[in-house]
Design brief:
- The strands form 2 sheets. Strands 7, 8, 9, 10, 11, 12, 13, 14, 15 and 16 form a 10-stranded mixed β-sheet that branches.
- By secondary structure, the protein is of the alpha/beta class.
- Helix 6 (117-133) runs parallel beside helix 11, helix 8 (172-184) crosses helix 9 (188-197) and helix 14 runs antiparallel to helix 15.
- It has 15 helices and 16 strands.
- It has 3 domains: 4-146 and 332-340, Rossmann fold; 150-312, Dihydrodipicolinate Reductase, domain 2; 352-434, Alpha-Beta Plaits (2-Layer Sandwich), CATH 3.30.70.
- Bound molecules: NADP nicotinamide-adenine-dinucleotide phosphate (NAP).
- NADP nicotinamide-adenine-dinucleotide phosphate binds at residues 23-28, 56-59, 62, 91-94, 97, 115-117, 142, 146, 313-315, 318.
- NADP nicotinamide-adenine-dinucleotide phosphate binds next to helix 2 and helix 13.
């Protein structure tokens, strides 16, 4: 098969590599700025000059810094069918029509770089297979943790390292909010408003605070780490919007901080991937990751632990990852093994019921002799052992916090159901999971 465009990249070093851009918002404009600002460095390091060709946007009349308005178009075919374009950079976001555009580009043999977690976490396996069958490349470093080069590390440096756990703080907005709630005793609403004022949170923050953004990133990271296709729908997620200020104080008393974690683990040959708030021991490396930073802890049989920390968002930071992918494509021969990052190892995906955690349970109970013993019996009957208990009087009742040793989610759910049926228990029990040394 003739691949007219991809072969052009291997052409004369004197000819600039021409990039067709899909989208020119925060990341797209930062990408254009980076290419013009670092042109000499890029040319020296890669031996090639990069040039921006046609740019797809929705509205050509919007002012855009440093962009020649004649390059803008609202017709995707002006970019996808331009015979002078060597490579597509997609920074428009969304699942459709973006997926259709990328399929067309890949089918035509054009290499594609994308920052799109929504698309990759749903159609990554199919798009990678299409890239491979078309003899071209699809790269997506910026789709998870923006400026942190975690995908390249997993895909290349740690390809054979037998990764068994990926634990991440993969959403900067929620980490900023949780850091403020822990540090200053701020309410969730105030911390969110502050994050919005500082530009860390969108006007509509639901994707971030509800956990969907982190779930998309964890689907991508788990797929690469475990060589198995993990779809966004395979990742159960909980956000931080239901957390209460009192749990931050109680967690502190117990020696923990609360983080929104993505936890992907190999368990008996199966894969468990989840996103939920978790109690992290104050001494743990992830507890020290504060503000809008992201961090990913990779655990492997060969290299033990590697932690990558850095900016998880921002136009310039994300554009840096996009540019790194473009340069990797220039430096990588077509058809190499690196395109097999999502090759299916046939591992089963586990349901949340099969996964194990240690748990923190907060209850309001009537203040009556024997209540604690009855609650302890519920835990024992469900096969969960208790590690520590805090009991505090509160008006005519008491507040009980129990921290368990490791146990299955199914056992914990059985204990919760039994406690809901107890007349001594008031209201809904609050459940959080712990990041234990042996996993969350
Ligand atoms: N911003 C970050 O910090 C960050 C970090 C990591 C990953 N990402 C990812 O990077 C991608 C871009 O993010 P962004 O923040 O740069 O978004 P953005 O500022 O909203 O920019 C999106 C761009 O795409 C264009 N666009 C959107 N839908 C289009 C359509 N249907 N047809 C034509 N053009 C369309 C928009 O055109 P108009 O300008 O005309 O509206 C705009 O130029 C997303 O996938 C995002 O998840 C962003």
């Amino acid at each position: 098969m003739t691949l007219p465009n991809s072969s052009a990249i291997d052409g004369s070093p004197d000819r600039p590599v021409r990039i067709g851009l899909l989208g020119c918002g925060t990341v797209g404009q930062a990408f254009v700025r980076t290419i013009s600002g670092q042109g000499e460095t890029i040319a020296r390091a890669s031996g090639r000059r990069l040039e921006i060709g046609p740019i797809l946007v929705r509205d050509t009349s919007k002012p855009r810094d440093g962009i020649d308005l004649r390059q803008l178009t609202t017709d995707p075919q002006d970019v996808l069918r331009d015979p002078t374009v060597d490579l597509i950079v997609e920074v428009m976001g969304g699942v459709e029509p973006t997926g259709t555009y990328l399929r067309q580009a890949l089918q035509a043999g054009l290499p594609v770089v994308t920052a799109n977690k929504q698309l990759l976490s749903r159609h990554g396996a199919e798009l990678l297979a299409l890239a491979q069958s078309s003899g071209t490349e699809l790269r997506f470093e910026a789709s998870a943790c923006a400026g942190i080069p975690v995908i390249k590390v997993l895909r290349e440096s740690l390809l054979a390292a037998e990764i068994f756990a990926v634990t991440g703080i993969v959403n900067g907005t929620t980490n900023y909010i949780l850091s403020e709630m822990s540090r200053g005793g701020m309410s969730y609403a105030d911390a969110l408003a502050q994050a919005q004022a500082l530009g860390y949170a969108e006007a509509d923050p639901s994707e971030d605070v509800g956990g969907a953004d982190a779930a998309a990133k964890m689907a991508i990271l788990a797929s690469i780490a475990f060589h198995t296709n993990v779809h966004f729908d395979d990742v159960p997620f909980e956000g931080i919007d239901g957390l209460h200020g009192e749990d931050f104080d109680l967690a502190k008393d117990l020696g923990f901080v609360i983080k929104l974690l993505g936890v992907a683990r190999l368990v008996d040959g199966g894969i468990s991937v989840r996103v939920h708030p978790a109690l992290v021991p104050e001494s743990h490396r992830l507890a020290a990751v504060r503000g809008a930073d992201n961090a990913v802890l990779l655990e492997s049989g060969t290299v033990r632990q590697i932690m990558l920390v850095g900016p998880g968002a921002g136009g310039t930071e994300t554009a840096s990852a996009v540019l790194a992918d473009v340069l990797s494509i220039l430096g990588t021969a077509q058809g190499s093994f690196l395109q097999n990052a999502l090759a299916d190892a046939g591992r089963p995906l586990l349901s949340p019921d099969q996964t194990e955690s240690a748990f923190y349970v907060r209850l309001r109970v009537v203040d009556r002799p024997g209540v604690l013993a009855r609650i302890a019996t519920v835990f024992a009957n469900s096969g969960l052992s208790i590690r520590s208990v805090i009991q505090r009087g509160e008006g005519d009742g008491a507040r009980l916090v129990l921290v368990t040793h490791m146990g299955s989610e199914a056992r914990m759910n059985a204990a919760l159901d039994a406690m809901r049926d107890m007349e001594e228990v008031r209201g809904e029990p609050v459940l959080l999971r712990l990041l234990a040394e042996e996993g969350a």
